[in-house]
Write the structure tokens for this entry.
Amino acid sequence: MHGHALRLLAEEEHIDEWADFAVGAIYGAIKRLATEQLIEPIRVEREGNYPERQVFEITASGRDALVRIRRHALETIVHRPDPVDLALARLGDEDVVAVVEDRLVALQAMLDRERSHVSAIAHLLTPMEQQVMRHDAHRLQGEIAWHQELLGALPEIIVNEASRKGQQK
């Protein structure tokens, strides 16, 4: 497949929604993969007046690398710290209730957009792709539930923080 065809496929598949990869980065990735001998050029194609396009195929070492990367992605659980946790742990003079309420509204809007998007494209997705799309919705639901729990606990937390800060003076 040549770079332009790969870019069109990535746009059609909305790769930027599935992975931390921008469609515009495809040509740079192709160069890196070729340098690492994970893909290799097999021919040059030209259609009509379009420019010549280099067609690549995956190498044996590229297939091996792909299997390892896929296995690693399936076996590794990625759980990153959320910067909001540090910000909350070191409360300042912010109106934390309003901030958490704003975050909750934003998260709900993200979930609504996600559900709407999945609903609009559901007919194009395989059953596994539908599950993958649901994963993001479930992660958002977890964030929403935590923010709701936090809002319920904030009155007591604010009193505790004020008391603790008063004792330190």
